[in-house]
Design brief:
alpha+beta, 434 Repressor (Amino-terminal Domain), seven-stranded antiparallel β-sheet, about 30% helix, DNA binding, LexA_repressor
Length: about 240
């Protein structure tokens, strides 16, 4: 399949990013290789971002911003706006199941697991397997001790407006929270090994899993699905 060409806006972002990178790389002592390590990609991928071959997303833009010690808006005003809109949306999204603890609450750590592990969380969870998990992001949200983080995959939950969960964002899943219509949930379809992330809705008495990206279809729940948990927090993973 032929790769979709970048939009003029995305090409402008790449041009600004490349100019910024070239202007600061000597002073900062960075290279495409060191940036690739920060992004967790190959050097060729960094080259493609800088030369407008592949488009930036919020996750990669945030990593570039950190390496360059510059705000995202310095090279991509559109992604900076998307990130600000996302943060604002999440701060007012209590009706969707994202609930804050009282001010001053202590943050708790939860394991960041794979989507396949999420699909078998109840069956697979053992003390020894938890000790093998290296990344334990914190949250001040209300969540059960059995809660876990997942990293969003794909763009099915990336919305053109309102609440959005782009690829790379991490979400905290509470398996003990009762799913209600309007909640964002993690579900497992009978014929699928991996779990899926969608919004639970009810229309005319029928339950559906709804993607936030209108390019994806609704999934009707007909007894072929198990809700594994409700999303109670979402944020970007801090890169140390």
């Amino acid at each position: 399949m032929k790769k979709k060409p970048l939009t003029p806006e995305q090409l402008d972002d790449a041009k600004r990013l490349k100019e910024l990178f070239n202007a600061k790389k000597k002073a900062l002592g960075i290279s495409q290789e060191s940036v690739a390590h920060e992004l967790g990609v190959g050097q060729s991928a960094v080259n493609q971002f800088l030369n407008g071959i592949n488009p930036l997303n919020v996750t990669n833009a945030a990593a570039f911003a950190k390496v360059l010690n510059e705000p995202i808006s310095s090279f991509s005003p559109s992604l900076a706006k998307e990130l600000a809109k996302m943060a604002e949306s999440l701060s007012i999204s209590t009706r969707s199941g994202l609930n804050d603890k009282p001010v001053g609450s202590v943050a708790n750590s939860y394991p960041l697991i794979s989507w396949i592990s999420a699909g078998n969380w109840y069956e697979a969870i053992e003390p020894y397997s938890l000790r093998d998990i290296e990344i334990w992001p914190e949250s001040t949200k209300n969540a059960h001790d059995s809660a876990f983080w997942l990293s969003v995959k794909g763009d099915s939950m990336t919305s053109p407006s309102g609440i959005s969960f782009p690829e790379g964002m991490i979400i905290l899943v509470d398996p003990e929270k009762e799913p209600m219509p309007g909640n964002f949930v993690i579900a497992k379809l009978t014929d699928d090994n991996e779990a899926t992330f969608k919004k639970l809705i009810v229309d005319a008495g029928v339950k559906y899993l709804k993607p936030l990206n209108p390019a994806y279809r609704l999934i009707e729940l007909t007894g072929n699905c198990k809700i594994l948990g409700v999303v109670v927090d979402a944020r970007w993973l801090q890169i140390d």
